[in-house]
Amino acid sequence: MSTSGPITEFPAPGLRDPFRYITGHDAEGNAVFVQTDNGDHRAVMLGGAAAQNIIYSAGSNPIELTGNVDLEFAKNRPSLHIPNGVCVRMIDFAPGCKSNMHRALCMGIGTVCEGEVELTLGSGEKRILRPGDVSINRGAMHQWRNTSDEKPARMLYTLLDIKPLIVNGKQLDFDMGYLMKEYAEYDEGEGDKKAE
Question: Boundaries of each Cupin type-2 domain copy?
Fold first, then answer.
């Protein structure tokens, strides 16, 4: 990990605090906004290299909306990804921030909202993503880097659970490296791939 300056809260300096608008239905069945706020479970990550904001989470897929079951689930801080569920996580990266190479065993759909981010795969292949660009990560080892040494970058990730991933007859392992320090309290961080 490298960074030219710590982030002390979400949002990162220079980025706006996003609103989320959650819809639902009133007692008569009319479509209404049931919640308007700035997200839940904000946290500074990795000593200020990044900060996250949980935009939405649900403990099932298909998602149970009846009786606001999903909104009740979302009151608790979710893990990195949710078995049989979904997590939508916004991450601000400090200028120059570079993650370690890692793999979360989930479908990670990442959209660049602000700045420019380099995505490097375990093979060494690289792509530069700009605002509006989307990465569909299907369990690949990868690394993120904010290409600017002056401005923060922001990405929005939708993380969906997957079935065990078999490549060349071998089941791939969860491997977050030092990023697991942010998620070590969760079962998926147990074992030899837990933070060192």
Answer: 92-156
Q: What is the pLDDT of residues 89-119, one digit of tens each?
A: 999 999 999 999 999 889 999 999 999 999 9
Residue in 143, 146, 145 with CA at minimum distance from that of residue 122: 143
pLDDT tens for residues 19-51?
999 999 999 999 999 999 999 899 999 889 999
**Closest of 102, 122, 126, 112 to residue 157, by C-alpha:** 112
d(CA 10, CA 103): 24
All structural domains of the chain with their residue ranges: 41-189
- With 0.70 as the threshold, say if the pTM is over it: yes
The pair phi, psi for residue 42, each rounded to 5°, is -75, 145
* Domain 41-189 indexed as CATH 2.60.120.10: yes
